[in-house]
Specification:
- It is a single chain.
- By secondary structure, the chain is mostly helical.
- The chain contains 23 helices and three strands.
- The protein has a three-stranded mixed beta sheet with strand order 2-1-3.
- The radius of gyration is 40 Å and the shape is elongated.
- The C terminus is likely disordered.
Length: about 550
């Protein structure tokens, strides 16, 4: 008995096996070479393997193969173990003309395309367990190729899906017509495999998605699988595993068409990974994808809490990076509609974060200045944000306040806002004067258009009346502008406020005058039309 077990094999420090060196070495080229140097030795020998693929379980399988005269039942659950063990042990030696282990496994792998869905999953899972100790990429790629090919066929054939149970009969490519009522909806038919592929690790998911993209799979379905994969795996994964999963999902979403990933999904992922230390590359990709769809975001999407260690209530830095990403696409590429949508969204966000006492003026300025002037049809919302910011940050210097006021385009402020600004003690006096002067310029332009004789026919009366009133408006307007120019900005604030109220009253008078003139001209035009109609009816028939 001792002669039969004259070789001790230590497998990865897990377990030791006593085997007959003659029997095992006859099938293994590696052991034959090792033991050839010790011929003539009568004592027991010991061999230590450090990186044996599959460990003790796998060595036990090949021992059975050797002791069973080169015969073993190859199944999807052990084919990967036997295949890599045959490579490791150089078991390409044929004994008595029988096929060696390597040839047997190769022949079985050639029939992989005929395997059932569950058999493919079992083999894929076994290969995955051998990583990274074994160079099993060729077999993994072959197995994944069969998986993707099967999915491509089933999506075209609309199959009755099987489960991943080992007892499953696999994919059925045709269903009894009598059972058509039990078919799932088109959505479930497209996603039936999601649950089955949760067994895959992040590295295999990456290989799977790249293969699917190469085969031109529907990108919407792929993105839904990635989202489902992340949500499902996060329930049980540890922090390090979560980070790896998140990075893989983000990297794979980035290679898909941007239209296939919803903005809502991207913001969900962003919130999940906010306090994870994911790598910078993945974070940049995620923010880039969000930036490309920023016009589809809502205010709630942007209100992401600040990470730990930052005093701001909301993560303003994140929004600034996303805005930069949106603008890096080029304002020329972004349609005016998209640009204005982002402008409205940013102004709403600015107003929302303005009451934060920890928000520094530099951050507020960066947020308000991030977009070009074309992104705003009106600056009213930005004015309200600045007003709120000045209310909370009362200790700002006059210079800092003026920097904030320089953000406003006074020509795009409504009349109500300009009046409010002129009475707002929180704003510097210079900005109040500038707002009123801007309104006067608007009125002057309107009066010039209204008093144009060519616009109201050839009536001498109408021209005289409009000229007369237009001149009054013009003179009054010039008086207001001159009056504003004479203001002493450095004088007492109360006195300045009184002057501004006087200017405001004159502006209102000019508006009333303008409306009255427009009404009169409308009546005159209508009377001329009626008069011309009555003349036409009174013409003699011979002249008609």
């Amino acid at each position: 008995m001792e002669a039969c077990c004259d070789l001790e094999v230590d497998v990865n420090g897990e377990e030791s096996f006593m085997v007959n060196k003659r029997v095992v070495s006859s099938y293994s080229g590696k052991l034959s070479k090792l033991l050839g140097k010790s011929k003539g030795s009568t004592r027991n020998l010991k061999v230590v393997f450090q990186d044996f693929p599959g460990g003790a379980e796998c060595f036990e399988l090949i021992s059975r193969f050797c002791y069973n005269n080169g015969s073993i039942d190859i199944t999807p659950s052990n084919i990967s173990l036997l295949h890599f063990a045959a490579i490791f042990m150089e078991m390409n030696i044929s004994v008595s003309g029988a096929p060696n282990l390597f040839e047997k496994t190769e022949k079985s792998l050639e029939e992989m395309r005929y395997w059932t869905w569950s058999e493919l999953l079992i083999t894929l899972k076994r290969c995955q367990d051998l990583l990274p100790a074994t160079n099993c990429l060729p077999l993994l790629e072959k197995c994944l190729d069969c998986i993707v090919g099967r999915l491509a066929l089933t999506s075209e054939a609309s199959p009755c899906p099987s489960t991943s149970s080992p007892d499953s009969s696999g994919i059925r490519f045709s269903c009894d017509t009598r059972s058509t009522e039990s078919l799932k909806t088109s959505t479930s038919r497209a996603t039936w495999w999601f649950e089955d592929l949760l067994v895959l690790g992040p590295n295999l998911v990456e290989m799977l998605v790249k293969s699917m993209v190469t085969r031109k799979f529907d990108h919407v379905t792929i993105s839904r699988f990635l989202f489902y994969y992340q949500k499902s795996k996060f329930y049980t994964a540890q922090s390090d595993a979560k980070r790896t999963i998140a990075e893989t999902v983000i990297d794979m979403l980035h290679i898909l068409d941007q239209s296939s990933v919803s903005c809502k999904t991207l913001f969900w992922i962003l919130r999940v990974v906010q306090n994870m230390n994911i790598n910078k590359s993945s974070r940049n990709k995620l923010e880039s994808m969000i930036g490309s769809q920023l016009d589809q975001a809502s205010l709630d999407n942007l209100l992401v809490p600040s990470p730990h260690g930052i005093n701001h209530l909301y993560d303003v830095n994140l929004v600034l990076r996303v805005l930069n990403s949106f603008l890096r696409g080029g304002t020329a590429k972004a349609s005016p509609v998209r640009l204005r949508k982002v402008g409205v969204l940013v102004d709403m966000y600015t107003a929302e974060v303005a009451p934060d006492p920890c928000l520094r003026p530099s951050k507020f300025l960066a947020l308000a200045m991030a977009l070009p002037d074309a992104a705003r049809d009106s600056y009213d919302e930005l004015y309200r944000a600045i007003d709120m910011y000045l209310e909370v940050h009362g200790g700002l210097s006059e210079e800092e306040k003026m920097k904030l006021c320089c953000l406003l385009n006074y020509e795009k402020l409504s009349q109500e806002v300009c009046i409010h600004l002129s009475q707002n003690a929180k704003f510097p006096s210079k900005s109040a004067v500038q707002a009123l002067i801007s309104q006067q310029v608007k009125l002057k332009s309107l009066l010039q258009v209204t008093s144009n004789p060519k616009s109201y026919g050839d009536s001498p009366f109408s021209v005289t009346e409009v000229d007369d009133k237009g001149r009054k408006g013009h003179d009054s307007n010039e008086q207001c502008v001159l009056y504003a120019g004479k203001l002493d900005i450095s004088a007492d604030n109360e006195k300045l406020r009184e002057h501004l109220h006087g200017m405001q009253w004159r502006v209102m008078e000019l508006e009333k005058m303008c409306k009255k003139m427009q009404t009169q001209m409308a009546k005159f035009t209508k009377s001329r039309v009626l008069s011309s109609h009555s003349h036409a009816r009174s013409l003699p028939k011979l002249c008609s």
